[in-house]
Design brief:
With 321 residues, the protein is of the alpha/beta class. The protein has one domain: Spore Coat Polysaccharide Biosynthesis Protein SpsA, Chain A (Alpha-Beta Complex). Helix content is 36%, strand content 17%. The strands form three sheets. The chain has a seven-stranded mixed sheet with strand order 3-2-1-4-9-6-10, sandwiched between helices. Strand 7 (152-153) and strand 8 form a beta hairpin. The chain is globular, with a radius of gyration of 20 Å. The N and C termini lie far apart (52 Å).
């Protein structure tokens, strides 16, 4: 079975379902009635969990999916696993090891989808998660990026965490009230990607997604979708799991640089300084998080975009305050 070239992504979508495969209701609908979604997986020595990730994606049977895998110089049996599923891929290719974000950029450089996102090796999509993404973007032409209800999987792939649905604004995000946008549930339009620079920063080991959200916030509001899209798989090999303290420190550095050009940024900086000082005092830390940060996170305001919810009676997505 030959390796597909990156140019294959320019020519078409995923392969057709074989005659022996069941045909879902999604597949019966014309593919052009669904927005084209580009989903990229970058993998380096991810053989332990990669197959679960691939299965969670190809089993979606989303009718207009462009799925690209980039092997970032793996030395285990990652390539053999990819070849097992290449009939379901727009393309895949290997490159010398350059890091996660360089591999993702290489995949996106060969993509054509109107909607974009990535899923790291090991993480998983929920059942029909891509249908949520496609139908939301089709329903709301002015919405430029979305994130679903954050969820967590354990190492065995069981859904073990489904927290309340977060709400997002740029000012609160930069203030630190809700910094953790779950990448596995987040998708955006290509037009936003292009306006925000058209590439992930390759200067980071694990913080590149956070830096990307900072740039997205310059151009568009982030809409929360009250539905399950994807989730983060907690295991010892995951990047952000290996050194969460260093991850948070580098995210703070990214925010500090961003605030230099934000109107009113000096006030946000002052708030962040107070928050950091409060966090160093054991007797104050818990009260500050509960009374100050918690209130800032939950306090309704005109800067909140509406939540996107599915209205069962009307059988459609709606914007809900």
């Amino acid at each position: 079975m030959k390796e597909l070239t990156p140019e294959a992504a320019k020519r078409g979508g995923t392969s057709e379902v074989t005659a022996a495969s069941p045909v879902s209701s999604l597949q019966r609908q014309p593919s052009d009635s669904w927005p084209r979604i580009t989903l990229v997986t970058a993998v380096f020595n991810g053989a332990d969990y990669l197959e679960d990730t691939i299965r969670s994606i190809v089993s979606q049977e989303y009718p207009n999916l462009e799925y690209i895998i980039v092997d970032d110089g793996s030395t285990d049996n990652t390539v053999e696993i990819i070849r097992k599923y290449e009939a379901h891929l727009a393309c895949w290719f290997s490159q010398p090891n350059k890091g996660l974000y360089a591999a993702l950029n290489a995949g996106f450089a060969h993509s054509t989808g109107e909607i974009m996102g990535w899923l790291n090796s090991g993480d998983l999509l929920h059942v029909n998660g891509l249908s949520v993404v496609g139908s939301v973007f089709a329903a709301f032409k002015d919405v430029e990026w979305i994130t679903g209800r954050p969820t967590g999987f354990n190492a065995q792939g069981m859904t073990v965490q489904v927290p309340p649905l977060p709400r997002w604004t740029r000012s609160r995000f930069l203030a630190g009230a809700n910094r953790h946008i779950q990448q596995e549930s987040t998708y955006w339009r290509r037009s936003l990607w292009d306006r925000a620079g058209g590439a992930l920063s390759e200067a980071y080991r694990a913080e590149g997604d956070f830096e990307q959200w900072v740039r997205f916030f310059r151009h568009a509001r982030l809409y929360s979708v009250d539905a399950l899209i994807g989730g983060y798989r907690m295991h010892e090999g995951s990047l952000s799991h290996t050194n969460i303290g260093q991850y948070n420190d580098r995210c703070d550095e990214i925010v500090e640089r961003e605030l230099e050009s934000v109107r009113g940024g000096e006030w946000i900086k002052l708030f962040r300084r107070l928050s950091q000082r409060a966090g160093r005092i054991r007797k104050v830390r818990r009260a500050w998080r509960r009374l100050v940060m918690g209130s800032l996170y939950r306090w309704p305001g005109p800067d909140w975009p509406p939540v996107i919810e599915y209205h069962l009676d009307e059988a459609r997505w709606i914007l809900s305050k």
